[in-house]
Design brief:
Number of strands of chain A: 0
Number of domains of chain B: 1
Order of helices and strands of chain A: HH
Radius of gyration of chain A: 20 Å
Helix content of chain B: 55-70%
Largest sheet of chain B: 4 strands, antiparallel
Shape of chain B: globular
Distance between the termini of chain A: 15 Å
Structural class of chain A: mainly alpha
Strand order of the largest sheet of chain B: 3-4-6-5
CATH architecture of chain B: Alpha/alpha barrel
Radius of gyration of chain B: 24 Å
Mean pLDDT of chain A: 80
Low-confidence stretches of chain B: 1-8
Number of helices of chain B: 15
CATH class of chain B: Mainly Alpha
Number of domains of chain A: 1
Structural class of chain B: alpha+beta
Oligomer: heterodimer
Number of strands of chain B: 8
Order of helices and strands of chain B: EEHHHHHHHHHHHHEEEEHHEEH
Number of helices of chain A: 2
CATH topology of chain B: Glycosyltransferase
Low-confidence stretches of chain A: none
Chain lengths: ~90, ~400
């Protein structure tokens, strides 16, 4: 059985870390017009700019598409650990 | 084999532990799939209804966001296409689309009329500046405005610019640009009438039906704003276009044709989606037919998000990577056709697909609202201006 408290703490760190990273990046990129390079990327665009744009897209996709599923799955895990496994073990005791 | 449980009170058989582990894993996967497939679409479409209804606060906020770009006094150096010519086109496109957005929102909201008309004026002054006209002058060897009485067609500059002037005249019937609008419309109509193929060149020996849709849309707008009757000319042009420049199979516009009118490129999503927006100002029925064809041949829905293909399926894989017209193409779905079709779905009352496209724009464009200002972080000046024109399309027709 996994410790449901540990699962919850790790999940919160992951989720809030990802959200924090997204917020920091979106503020920075909004102020510096970095992202529009992806419309016409090529050899003329500095590698670091492209890398930053690509990294933001990755974080954005994670936050916008995967995070809701991730949160739901983690909630499911915590509830599972707390109720199902605990009950099974209690029955055995 | 028996192991001790983690609570240390009683041993738990390995079989039970494995079964519970597998069950836990399956619950996680199931909830992840449900969460990722169902929730993002609702979150991403949160403002779609408001955009569709033309809510004042959103139009004002995006107008303010675009105005911020205009205040930075943009130049070619602000764009990074790698080609000075394309940078010039993007600079021109930014002011054109921004002006269309301001015109549409000025017509939709009396509260915004004064401010947005002023911003439209600022865009027109920039469009008339030497710096913005330069990209077209470099291609033709003469100036698009100074050569109105000559033969060079200048569809790329004049068609789009004349759209803005026509819309400005709808916003302000006493527009100070009315004479210029009359002159450009007269020159464009004469050039189209004199053309053997009913199309005029964007650049020397380069014929693009989509740019000609802007030419025709601008003539339609001129008719609405000035009262001049262009209906016979427009009906004749639309009949020719349907016959020669619309692909019989897909119903889409060809992207590029030769000087004898033969297509040299595939019928494509970016040209058709933008073309039907311009044509809605001249012939709503033709615009709707092009919208239906695009919906049928290219529009897709993936997990509740809208995406529009650049090609209808017959193109070579290499072409499907995208170019300056389509923007990046991922899995066949093009950035430009997806963005441009937002306008068509609103103009032709397709609220369901409009919502799906707005959902995609929100996920990929990363909207950022700060105080009374709204921007798409991924967009930059051109992206914001295009989204402004497309999201607010549907007034002025």
């Amino acid at each position: 059985m996994r410790n449901w408290r540990k699962t919850m703490i790790v999940s919160c760190i992951e989720i809030f870390g990802l959200l924090f990273l997204h917020v920091v990046l979106i503020h920075y990129l909004a102020a510096n017009n970095v992202m529009s390079v992806i419309f016409a990327a090529g050899e003329h665009v500095p590698g670091t700019t492209l890398l930053l744009a690509g990294f933001f897209l990755l974080v954005r996709i994670m936050v916008a598409l995967a995070l809701p599923g991730m949160i739901l799955a983690r909630i499911g895990h915590v509830l599972f650990d707390y109720y199902v496994v605990r009950r099974k073990l209690q029955e055995r005791e | 084999m028996i192991k001790k449980s983690t609570c240390g009170k009683s041993p738990v058989p390995l079989g039970l532990r494995l079964r519970l582990g597998a069950l836990r894993f399956m619950v996680g996967i199931l909830l992840f799939v449900i969460g990722s497939c169902l929730l993002p679409r609702f979150w991403a479409r949160r403002d779609a209804g408001k955009w569709y209804d033309g809510k004042l606060e959103l139009h004002r906020a995006l107008g303010n966001g675009v105005a911020e770009w205009l205040l930075t006094d943009l130049s070619r150096n602000d764009f990074t296409t790698g080609s000075s010519q394309f940078n010039g086109e993007w600079l021109f496109g930014t002011y054109t689309m921004a002006a269309m957005g301001y015109g549409q929102t000025a017509l939709a909201h009396p509260e915004l009329r004064e401010k947005h008309e002023r911003l439209m004026d600022a865009c027109i002054e920039r469009l008339l500046s030497e710096e913005v006209r330069k990209f077209d002058r470099e291609m033709w060897g003469d100036d698009p405005i100074d050569s109105l009485s000559k033969d060079s067609a200048h569809a790329a500059y004049l068609g789009y610019f004349n759209m803005v002037l026509g819309l400005h005249r709808l916003v302000d019937p006493d527009s100070k640009y009315a004479d210029l609008n009359d002159s450009i419309t007269g020159a464009l109509r004469k050039r189209v009438e004199q053309s053997d193929i009913s199309l005029i060149e964007s650049y020397p020996s380069e014929y693009y039906p989509v740019d000609n849709c802007a030419v025709i849309g601008s003539i339609g707008l001129h008719g609405k704003a000035s009262g001049v009757d262009h209906s016979e000319f427009l009906a004749e042009w639309v009949a020719t276009c349907r016959m020669r420049y619309v692909d019989k199979e897909s119903g889409l516009l060809y992207q590029c044709v030769l000087s004898d009118g033969r297509p040299v490129d595939e019928p494509r999503g970016s040209g058709t989606a933008l073309g039907l927006y311009f044509l809605s100002f001249a012939d709503m029925e033709f615009s709707e037919d092009l919208y239906d064809a695009t919906s049928r041949s290219l529009a897709r829905t993936i997990f509740g998000f809208g995406g529009v293909r650049e090609y209808s399926g017959s193109a070579e894989p290499l072409e499907q990577c995208g170019d300056i017209d389509s923007g990046p193409v991922v899995c066949g779905l093009g950035l430009s056709p997806t963005g441009f079709l937002i306008s068509g779905s609103r103009i032709h009352g397709d609220q369901i697909y409009y919502s799906k496209l707005v959902g995609t724009a929100y996920v990929c464009g990363a909207p950022f609202k700060k105080k009374d200002k709204f921007n798409f972080v991924v967009g930059g000046p051109l992206g914001d201006a295009i989204m402004f024109a497309m999201l607010t399309a549907g007034t002025g027709q």
